[in-house]
Specification:
Helices cover 0% and strands 35% of the residues. With 150 residues, the chain is mainly beta.
C-alpha cells in the first residue's frame, strides 16, 4: 500500500497519539523531520589563529570515516553497513534503531588550507580537528596620489 510521505515521514507517524499514548517522547524535528538525527552535528569554535571543529559520529569506527579536501572544500563522510538479517546467539533482531548507512557534510575552508594543516583525531564518538585561519591581508595605510594630466 502506498502512503504519502514528506521527508521520510508518513501521515501515520503520530497515529498512536490519538489513543492516549502521547506520553512517548517525541524526537526533535529541527532539520528535516525525524531523519534529522542522521545529520553530522558539528560545533565550531573560533580561537585566535584556528577554528576548532568537533563532529558527532557516535557509533562509527575510525575506519568508517573519510575526510577529503578538494578546491577549498573539506568533505567528511561516514558510512557503515548493517546486515538486516543479522542474528546473534539468541535469535534475530526484532527492531534496530541505531543508524546504518552513510552520511556526509561539506565545509568551505578556503584555498589556503592543505591536507598537512588538518590533524584529525577520533575519540569517544567525536571527530576533532583544527583549521588554520586565513591570514588577514594587510591594508596599506598610506595615501596614493594620482597625477592629473592637462
Amino acid at each position: 500500500m502506498l502512503m504519502p510521505s514528506i521527508f521520510g515521514e508518513t501521515l501515520f507517524d503520530d497515529f498512536m497519539n490519538d489513543f492516549g499514548f502521547s506520553s512517548f517522547p517525541d524526537r526533535e524535528k529541527r532539520v528535516y523531520g525525524k531523519g534529522a538525527n542522521n545529520l553530522m552535528n558539528t560545533d565550531v569554535k573560533e580561537k585566535e589563529s584556528v577554528y576548532e571543529i568537533d563532529i558527532d559520529l557516535a557509533g562509527f569506527n575510525k575506519e568508517d570515516i573519510q575526510m577529503e579536501l578538494e578546491k577549498g572544500v573539506l568533505t567528511v563522510k561516514a558510512g557503515k553497513n548493517v546486515n538486516k538479517d543479522e542474528k546473534d546467539e539468541e535469535g534475530r533482531y526484532i527492531r534496530r534503531e541505531r543508524y546504518a548507512g552513510s552520511m556526509s557534510r561539506s565545509f568551505y575552508v578556503g584555498e589556503h588550507v592543505t591536507e598537512e594543516d588538518i590533524h584529525p583525531k577520533y575519540e569517544n564518538g567525536v571527530l576533532s580537528f583544527e583549521l588554520p585561519k586565513e591570514d588577514a591581508k594587510v591594508i596599506e595605510d598610506k595615501k596614493h596620489y594620482i597625477a592629473i594630466e592637462g
